[in-house]
Amino acid sequence: MPYTFIPYTKISVVRQYPKLLVNEKNKMYKNFLYILIFLYISSDLYSQEGGVISYFPDGKIRQIENYRNNKLDGVSKYYYENGILKQMISYSEGKKSGKSFYYYDTGILKEMLNYNDDKFNGDFSSYYPNGVVKESGKYLFGIPDGEFRAYYETGQLKSYYTLINGAKNGIIYDYYPNGTIKAEANFVNDIQEGLTKFYYEDGSLKGNYPYSSNQLHGDVKEYFKDGGLMTEKYYEYGRLEGIEKTYYKNGSIKTESNYDYGFREGTTKSFYEKGKLWSEQIYKKDKLIGETKIYRKDGSLWYIETYDNGELISSKEFSEEGKLVAEQTFEKKN
Predict the structure, then answer these.
(1) Where do the domains of the chain lie?
(2) What is the reported pTM?
(3) Mean pLDDT across the chain, nearest whole number?
């Protein structure tokens, strides 16, 4: 059988999409084109270069910003609605850099800050509305570092301290408005250590408070203005321990209490100024228990009160001759 050549015939394949799908594809394509055109136009219309000014509705200037390569660069100014300058901020390539100033709506300087790469860096100061310096200090790349001072509105120094890498170090001083020292405390890497002293406004010593690792630790003594001992007690890492005594100005003992692990425990006694016993009380973990006895100045028994877990459950009153003159019981609440 002879070989028969059959010529190649190209067959066109036409895809048949539903009419609705074709229309949707056309819409998506058109929308995509619109977005591209909008972005192109916007990049030209809204690119910012040089000075850009915006206004309040009444026509007063709201802000003046300077741009370079579409980033804030140079000094920008911002205003209150009354026309007073509110902020003056220096930028470099979109970040705060150099001195910046912030003002009250009266025009008085409120704060002065130095920036580097959007972080506080260098001197800073803040001011009261009357223009007097409120605080001053230094930052190093966003971290407070150096000498810091705070002032009263009169301009008198209020406190002085040193920060190293953000932590308090050395002696911190607080002052009264008259300039005398109010307190002094020592810190090591933000931890209170050593002896803290408080003073009266006349400069006389008010109290000595020893610290270890941020906690009261050791003998605490507090004084009257005339220098007489007012209180003596002992702390063990923040907890009261042992005997606490308080005194009258004449030096006679006023109260005597015992503490265990921070709780008042055992017998507490109080005395009249001339030394006579005033009361005897019994405590258990800071709560009154048992009999409390109260005496007159002549030494005669006046009352006997009975407590249970801090609650008064009965009371007896006695005459100076020792006779029972009144008795009362109370219903327990707990």
Answers:
(1) 249-334
(2) 0.79
(3) 89
